[in-house]
Write a structure and sequence with these properties.
The complex is a heterodimer of chains A (128) and B (164).
Chain A: H1 6-29, H2 36-39, H3 59-89, H4 93-116
Helix pairs in contact in A: 3-4
Chain B: H1 3-6, H2 16-25, E1 30-31, H3 38-46, E2 59-60, E3 68-72, H4 77-89, E4 95-99, H5 100-105, E5 127-129, H6 136-151
Parallel strand pairs in B: 1-2, 3-4, 4-5
Helix pairs in contact in B: 2-6, 3-6
The chains are: A mainly alpha (128), B alpha/beta (164).
Chain lengths: 128, 164
C-alpha cells in the first residue's frame, strides 16, 4: 500500500533536485552587478519622489465607489443605444426602451441607497 | 583524441560560453519603449508580417524583465536622463539597438535646442540601424546583427557596466 506513494515521493525528490540545479546554475553563471540606480524603484524612468506609503483620506474610497455607478451607466448606455438602433428599425422600440430603463432603474436604486445613507456628503454627521 | 569522437551520436557537446550566448540570443526580450515615429515601425516589426518574435524577441513592459532596449525615435535631453535610468534598471546582460536617424545622430532635429544628438552620448549602443524610419526588415537585420555579436562575445570575461 505504501508503494503507491512511491511515485509522488520520487516526483517530489526530482522536483527539489531540479529546482536546486536551476537555482545553483543561475547563481553560478548569471552576472551580478547591483548598484544604486539599478536598485531604485521602477517608475517608468521617472525619478521617484517621496514615499509610496502615504496616508490619503478614506472618504475618497466612497467617492470612487459612487463614481462607478455613473461611469458604468455612461459606459453601457452609449453602446446599447447604437445596438438598439437596429432593434428600433425592426419595430421593437418599446422593448428596447424598457430594457435600458430597467438598467437605469437598477443603478438609480443604488444611487438612492447612497443618497439615503448620506455618502454623497463630504462631511457626514452620523446621528448619535 | 577529441572528446567529440568518443561520444555516441545522441550526445551533444558545446562550450559554456557558446551555450550561454545561444540561450541569450534566442530570448532577446526587448523593452516596450517608443520615443517617436520609429516606434510605429517597431510595432510593425513585432506584428505578424515581420514577426520579430520568431527570433525570440518579445516585448516586455518592464525594464526589469528586458535584455534589449530599442531606442526608437528622437531622444530629447529631458528623456535622456530617464532613458539612462531605465537602462541602468535593466538586469545584465543588456543590449541597445539605436533605431533610426534621430537616435543615431539626432537626425532631422539635431540642431534643435532640446534634442540629444546621438544616443551614444548617454548609452553604450551595440547596433545602429539607419533609416528615417527604418523598415521592419532593417530592424530585423539589426536584431540578427546583434545576435551575431552576442554569439561572438565571451560573457564570463565581459566587463560590466559601471554606475555613472
Amino acid at each position: 500500500m505504501y508503494s503507491n506513494y512511491g511515485v509522488p515521493l520520487a516526483l517530489t525528490v526530482i522536483g527539489f533536485l531540479f529546482m536546486a540545479a536551476m537555482i545553483g546554475l543561475q547563481k553560478l553563471l548569471a552576472p551580478r552587478n547591483p548598484f544604486r540606480r539599478k536598485l531604485m524603484p521602477y517608475e517608468c524612468g521617472e525619478p521617484p519622489t517621496g514615499n509610496a506609503w502615504i496616508n490619503f483620506n478614506v472618504r475618497f474610497y466612497l467617492i470612487a465607489l459612487v463614481f462607478v455607478i455613473f461611469e458604468v451607466e455612461v459606459a453601457f448606455v452609449y453602446p446599447v443605444a447604437t445596438v438598439y438602433l437596429d432593434w428600433i428599425r425592426r419595430g421593437h422600440r418599446w422593448f428596447a426602451l424598457s430594457e435600458i430603463l430597467i438598467f437605469l432603474l437598477i443603478l438609480f436604486v443604488g444611487l438612492v441607497y447612497v443618497w439615503v445613507k448620506r455618502d454623497l456628503e463630504w462631511i457626514k454627521n452620523v446621528p448619535e | 583524441m577529441p572528446l567529440l569522437n568518443t561520444l555516441p551520436d545522441y550526445v551533444l557537446t558545446t562550450k559554456t560560453d557558446e551555450l550561454i550566448n545561444w540561450m541569450r540570443k534566442s530570448s532577446l526580450w526587448y523593452m516596450l519603449f517608443g520615443l517617436a515615429c520609429c516606434a510605429i515601425e517597431l510595432m510593425h516589426t513585432g506584428g505578424p508580417r515581420a514577426d520579430i518574435e520568431r527570433f525570440g524577441a518579445t516585448p516586455r513592459a518592464s525594464a526589469r524583465q528586458s535584455d534589449l532596449m530599442i531606442i526608437a525615435g528622437t531622444l530629447t535631453l529631458k528623456m535622456a536622463l530617464r532613458t539612462r535610468l531605465l537602462y541602468d534598471q535593466m538586469p545584465d546582460p543588456k543590449y541597445i539597438i539605436s533605431m533610426g536617424s534621430c537616435s543615431n545622430c539626432g537626425g532631422l532635429f539635431q540642431l534643435a535646442y532640446s534634442v540629444c544628438d546621438g544616443v551614444d552620448k548617454v548609452l553604450p549602443v551595440d547596433v545602429y540601424v539607419p533609416g528615417c524610419p527604418p523598415r521592419p526588415e532593417a530592424l530585423t537585420e539589426g536584431l540578427i546583427k546583434l545576435q551575431e555579436k552576442i554569439m561572438s562575445e565571451r560573457w564570463l570575461a565581459r566587463e560590466r557596466t559601471a554606475e555613472l
